[in-house]
Amino acid sequence: MKQKQTYFVKASFAILVFVMLGYVVKFYPEVLTGFDSSIQSTIRGQLPQLATHFFSAITFIGNASTQIALVIITFALLLNQKWYAESGFVAISGILAAIVIAGFKNIYQRPRPSLEHLVHAGGFSFPSGHSLGTMLIIGSLIVILSQRIKQQQLKLVLQIILELTILLVGLSRIYLGVHYPTDVIAGFTLGYGLLNLLYPIYDQKRFEWRFQNKQK
């Protein structure tokens, strides 16, 4: 119970940060101009061609179509292994990400940056759907792999790769000019909060179903 409360505290704090940031974006966006501009200038630099190709490829991981495919494939693979709690965790993470992204973008309706966009991006800017989706979906995979993989070195390598993927997807949205840094921070923060809300529920079901021999 104490461990569950710890995750709920983390979730509450992350969601509170998101709400505060969203309030500023909605009513006082000019306050964030200097902060966003300084980070954009640092990350984008002179837009070298190699970096543009790299981030254009990385950002594909966070596309809605890619995230949907990742959730469906992962769900099917986990289901085939009779890891029912894990498959449900990934599916719910993906569904929740889609609902939250669409809902909050329409609430805040923040226009995208006026910088040169190096890839096409439609709709509103806040929060970054790429950042939120990858945090939730890939974050759920990190949790599952950390529980299921016994070999410590392999587990560590996979965790680092997946964590770097989440970070790079967020950076790609800033570099490509389609999101403000605060959009990405908001996406990561909200995704982290939702992940911490879901994890105790998933972990309890996983324990119960394994104890009852309902899953491997």
From TrEMBL:
Lipoprotein as UniProt keyword: no
Limits of the Phosphatidic acid phosphatase type 2/haloperoxidase domain: 87-199
Pfam families: PAP2
Keywords: Membrane, Transmembrane, Transmembrane helix
InterPro entries reported in the protein's UniProt record: PAP2/HPO, PAP2/HPO_sf
Parts of the chain that traverse the membrane: 7-25, 54-77, 89-108, 128-145, 157-178, 184-202
CDD domains found in the cross-reference section: PAP2_like_2
PANTHER family: AT30094P, SPHINGOSINE-1-PHOSPHATE PHOSPHOHYDROLASE
Protein name stated in the entry: Phosphatase PAP2 family protein
